[in-house]
Amino acid sequence: MQEWGEFSEVTREEKKGTESDGGNNQVQTRWKPPRNVAIVLNSDAATSISTNKSVLGVVARDRHGQVVAIWVEPLHQCLDAEIDEAMVLRLAMIKAKEEGWDEVGMLSD
User: Fold this and answer.
1) In what residue span(s) does the RNase H type-1 domain sit (predicted)?
2) For residue 102, is pLDDT > 60?
3) What is the chain's mean pLDDT, rounded?
4) Which of 9, 10, 45, 77 is a plausible cystine mate for 88, CB 3.0–4.6 Å?
């Protein structure tokens, strides 16, 4: 649970629940149910250069929006934000395979 707290803290500071619409405007984002898949995996990596650590997080939701699994994996070194994002996608694919999920959608930033 400590890792989840670290992930939440870094993510909260970096994103504040908004994303850019391509201009100077910030748009509130919401989760949307999948259309053609049974499970959607939302993944994100939080990187802290000051502590030289990263945290990978994956949330799995069913087609009704119910959370069915959460995985958090701390990295004890900060490689690069792009590499960390690739690693969290890899983690999501590994977990989907372990769960036996065939119809999976993936969302990441």
Assistant:
1) 42-109
2) yes
3) 79
4) 45
**Residue 7 pLDDT greater than 70, yes or no:** no
Task: Say what the pLDDT of residue 37 is.
Answer: 85
What range defines the domain where residue 13 resides? 2-107
Task: Determine how many CB atoms are found less than 10 A away from the CB of residue 83.
Answer: 14
CB-CB contact of 58 with 95 (8 Å): yes
Taking every pair of Cα atoms in the chain, the longest distance, rounded to a whole number of angstroms, is: 42
Instruction: State how far the Cα of 109 lies from the Cα of 107, in Å rounded to an integer.
Output: 7
The CATH number assigned to the domain holding 103 equals 3.30.420.10
Helix (H, G, I), strand (E, B) or coil at 78: coil
Tokens 């890792």 belong to 3
- Which residues have CB under 8 Å from 6's CB, separation 6+? 46, 53, 55, 74
Q: Which residues contact 91 (CB under 8 A, 6 or more apart)?
A: 43, 56, 58, 71, 73
The highest-confidence range among 7-11, 19-23, 49-53, by mean pLDDT, is 49-53
From the number of C-beta atoms within 10 Å of its C-beta (0-12, 13-18, 19+), residue 56 rates as buried
